[in-house]
Amino acid sequence: MSEMASAPSSHLSGPPMCSTGRGRGPSGSLTTKGSVPSQGLQSNANALEQILEKPRLVVVEEPKDRGMRFRYECEGRSAGSILGASSTDNNKTQPTIEIQGPINHLKKVTVTVSLITKDLPHRPHPHCLVGKDCVAGSGICVVSFNPNTTRRHSFANLGIQCVRRRELDVSLQRRRSQNIDPFKTGHTKGIEDMDMNAVRLCFECLLEWDDGRKDSLFPVVSKPIYDKKATTTSELKICQLNLNRGSCKGKTEVYMLCDKVQKDDIEILFREGSWKANGEFAQTDVHRQIAIVFKTPPYQDQDITEEVEVSIVLRRVSDQMESEPVSFTYLPYNPDPYGVKRKRTTIKRDISVTEPPPPSEQTFNFHVMPSDESQHPIMPAAETGLLDPSSIDEQIVFSELLHFLSEQNLPTDMDTNSAVFPITNMNFNANYNTCPPDFSQFNDIQFNMLFNDNQIAQSEQQDSVIQVKAEEEL
User: Could you tell me the domains of the chain?
Assistant: First the structure.
């Protein structure tokens, strides 16, 4: 039993002997729990479990892949902070790691964070990390914590500072001097094939035990982080559409405002269920990287009778990155979209209703002046040319008319003026009192004309009499 206790490594690949509570002694005889041989096996099994179950490093909160801008040192301001993938406007999170597994007798954990390339093999990246946990000019971040106090650590205020092209080799040489090469790539390749707009975080963990031993865990790599200002990796976004409705036949011209896109690396996708189609546009239809003029594709069903709502997304061809969808509505086919036929029918109907009657059927409407003289004072007939029917005495008017006609020696037969006076064969010498005339045969215009002519004749006659008298007196 002492031999087994002194050489536990010989049983590392075997199963634990204490799983059933019983084991075999050195002689091969079966021993029960509580015996001396079984206690030795139990201690060997505990040692085996401690060796096999080492602590491991896990990224529990990945960095947000898009939305962060890589800034140059010459910009003179903070490089920002890498947010967590689940970060929101109301709840900010940061990239977080956690030590999982047994941590008994584990004294300290030291984690070194550096930037590596996005693609395999993961080589050191020339861009630098900056923040409160980073030594100025080092380009890396080093933190230490006691796992018995807290198993997690969040990297707050950790930013990415990009390096100018002429300083890339200097930055990589600094990584070599710091012995930063997590995957032992040997720095054999140059910077020509490196993606300067995408990086990954690499976490190297060093464990320190109570007995002074040190163990290194395998490096852990995060998801890629893309530069916000680069059009090849930036986040796609549809800002606005000038039209969100169109015919199911397609060919509707739509103007889209969006964030910066590459004209040779972008497409517009219409989707609804399993159906999808691409919007039609050329590279020349992409204006200043922020606007696209395109035509809608035909909908899968050309005979729809109701509106159908689909979604539109921007998709980058190189990495298949997509924007948040916006809605678009397909309308049933209408051969007269501008309503020309309907408007013509409406105009014809309005003309037939509002056209004036024939001239023979036209009637005249005469407005009688109101009797309230305070608001509408009545002007004399000579000034206004109108006659107030309420102030006319038919007998007086007719007697004056007869007197005027008798003085003018007009014939009593009015057939010659029948066009104006429809009364024929009127006997003006008849007794007015015994047979008064019927004025109902005159209309308003004829009666006014008759009365006004009488007034004018009387005024001319009076002027002539006054003129004769004046000559006789002389």
Answer: 2-52 (no CATH), 56-187+194-226 (2.60.40.340), 238-331 (2.60.40.10), 381-457 (no CATH)
